[in-house]
Amino acid sequence: MFKKLILITLIFSFAVSCTKEQNPFEIGKRYIGNLNDSTQVKDLKSIFPNDSIANFESSNTFTGNNYDVEIFNSVGEKLLILSPTASKDSTATIKTIRVESAQFKTIKGISKISTFKDIKDNYKINKIDNLIGSVVVTVKELNASFTIDKNELPASIRFDQNMTIDVLQIPGKAKIKYFMLHW
Questions:
Q1: For 56-112, how does the pLDDT look when each residue is reduced to its tens digit (9 = 90+)?
Q2: pTM for this predicted structure
Q3: Which residues share a beta bridge with 96?
Q4: What would the mean pLDDT of 22-35 be, rounded to a whole number?
Q5: 25: Cβ–Cβ under 8 A, 6 or more apart, which residues?
Q6: CA 182/CA 84 separation, integer angstroms
Q7: Distance between CA 122 and CA 110 in Å, rounded?
Q8: Helix, strand, or coil here: 40?
Q9: 42: β partners
Q10: Which secondary-structure segment (H or E) carries 81?
Q11: Is 170 exposed, middle or buried, given 0-12, 13-18 or 19+ CB atoms closer than 10 A?
């Protein structure tokens, strides 16, 4: 009996020691750091205890007419901009996250300072939208969209908003202006 108890204790200790801690800067399909697609606005203070949360009051409501919640680190650098599913509702979940810091990276290493080539080499591109001043590259594997300024594109395709832009037309060195996660 004593040997069984020691064996069970060893197995339990091994299992607990193998538990992987969540990387606070890792991006996946349904999470970014400790935020996930079911995180409620009221939980932001416990998720970001050492960071500053703008447009958020202790009463769990938003301030002013801007319902986006901005997260800044301890030295004042903007990390994320969160858009909740409903305004002035502390139980609302987050529907969109704009990644502002290069610290946040996908499992495959894509961050705000990556290039189009990095995206293309690591993920399947599902859609490219041609907008007035930018193109938006959608990657469903991440529920993400990457915005690239049209100034990064060849002049022949910059000005025709009706043109369908193909993956081959975007230079590999084109920089990401910003990217967003959509839940």
A1: 544 444 444 458 999 999 999 999 999 999 988 889 999 999 999 999 999 999 999
A2: 0.80
A3: 83, 182
A4: 94
A5: 33, 103, 104, 105
A6: 11
A7: 8
A8: strand
A9: none
A10: strand 78-84
A11: buried
Strand-pair partners of 139: 144
What does the pLDDT read at residue 62?
43
- Confidence class for position 50, pLDDT limits 50, 70, 90: confident
- 21-182: in CATH 2.60.460.10: yes
- What's the mean pLDDT in 167-171? 96
CA distance 25 to 149: 25
Of 147, 154, 142, 152, the closest CA to residue 107 belongs to 142
Share the mean pLDDT of the chain.
Answer: 87
Query: How far, in Å, CA of 49 to CA of 66, rounded?
Result: 22
- Residues 148-158 have pLDDT tens digits of 999 999 998 99
Domain ranges in the chain?
21-182
52: its two tokens:
């500053």
Angstrom distances, CA of residue 117 to CA of 58, 100, 123, 168, 172: 43, 20, 10, 10, 4
Question: In the chain, which residue ranges form alpha helices assigned H by DSSP?
Answer: 2-17, 44-47, 116-122, 155-158
